Amino acid sequence: MRRIRLIVEPPTGLLLNAVTGVAAWVLLVLLAAGAVSLPLGGPGRRLLSRVLGMARALTGVQRARAAQVLGHEILEPHPQDRTAREVAWLAVHAVVGPACLVSVGATLSAAMAIVRLRTAENGLSVTLNLSLAIVALTAIGLAAVPLLHTLQARLAERLLGPASSLAGRVRALTESRAAAVDAQAAEVRRIERDLHDGAQARLISMRMTLGLAKSESDPDQVRELVREAWESAGQALADLRDLVRGIHPPVLADRGLAGAIQAAALLCPIPVRVDIDLPARPEPPVESAVYFAAAEALTNVAKHSAATWAWVRLRHSGGVLRLAVGDDGRGGARPSAGTGLGGIRRRLSAFDGTLIVHSPPGGPTELTMELPCALSSPKISHS
Ligand SMILES: Nc1ncnc2c1ncn2[C@@H]1O[C@H](COP(=O)(O)OP(=O)(O)OP(=O)(O)O)[C@@H](O)[C@H]1O
Ligand SMILES: [Mg+2]
């Protein structure tokens, strides 16, 4: 099935890109018409915004298709750059889309034309040369199909993804700061809720039970009420312990990042190969972010992948901590489909880190997380 898709996809994609290339021409003409009619006021503005809406829909589809071809997500550009980049892509795609199909078609047609040139009167050497030309042209035409298909996807990634200029970098940092503040606020809200619904509720019930015991004269009743209060105190303690664990898991404090990830891998119902080589420990906030990222990635493997095995690889080199979590499962991981992968991205962006999701349909899946950090604390040896 996968092999059939690999054969069918490139020519279908090239054909579709030629069609969308023609659509890009139409949209460019309509955009020009909209721009020219802007001085007319209302109708001009309406035409322009409608055409820009159609261009956005087309570029959205192309971004998704290119992401599928490349096997990784293509982020959207910053809203400020978006329209300019989309119009630039329309202009490039209007030429490249049809041109790729035409060039492949021309090469294969040339081969067909030579087939017709071969006649019985040709001598042996002419026939041999013509046959060689046919084979060469057919091979070039067929090999060009997947190459051009990937090239078009890369072009879409370059033009429809975020700009990598200094301005883009400043914007990314501004956004990551906002994401960090958001993540922080969400975390505070979660702790507030957990305290409110957990320990606080237990303590209230304990106070009420003890209040009843205070005014009770029957010793048996008092004993029963004190037992209830004792149970509530135990539950409040358990809730507080869970809450603290969620903030900074004890295993992380005791055994460091490597030990904590190994412990998380052991809890995964699928066999996980763990390969960690860290000469020292990162700072605690980084350890915490990477640990929770690895834990969520492994939870996803267990929940969604249907894999037979998974792997975790953690390295530090050139001032960058790299964590990869992969599996041989069905693929199709999409950060937009849940809150877990988006949460990892937000968590890492607080440290200027990134998450790349490589998960083509059919698998395998690999999440690559990178964050710049220095290793400072000495390594903890775990027995
Ligand atoms: N390893 C994986 N293999 C296959 N699909 C995956 C994998 N990881 C994630 N997915 C897909 O990507 C989607 C998004 O994952 P994400 O972790 O963001 O959300 P979730 O696990 O569904 O919910 P939660 O918000 O509780 O984490 C999942 O719903 C699942 O369809
Ligand atoms: Mg998840």
UniProtKB/TrEMBL annotation:
The keyword Kinase applies. The keyword Membrane applies. The chain crosses the membrane at residues 12-38, 87-114, 126-148. Residues 189-252 form the Signal transduction histidine kinase subgroup 3 dimerisation and phosphoacceptor domain. InterPro entries: HATPase_C_sf (IPR036890), HATPase_dom (IPR003594), Sensor_HK_TwoCompSys (IPR050482), Sig_transdc_His_kin_sub3_dim/P (IPR011712). It comes from the Bacteria. It catalyses: ATP + protein L-histidine = ADP + protein N-phospho-L-histidine. SUPFAM superfamilies: ATPase domain of HSP90 chaperone/DNA topoisomerase II/histidine kinase. It is an enzyme of class 2 (transferase). Its EC number is 2.7.13.3. Keywords: ATP-binding, Kinase, Membrane, Nucleotide-binding, Phosphoprotein, Transferase, Transmembrane, Transmembrane helix, Two-component regulatory system. One of its GO terms (molecular function) is protein dimerization activity. GO terms for cellular component: membrane. Residues 289-373 form the Histidine kinase/HSP90-like ATPase domain. This is histidine kinase. It comes from Nonomuraea glycinis. The lineage of its organism: Bacteria, Bacillati, Actinomycetota, Actinomycetes, Streptosporangiales.
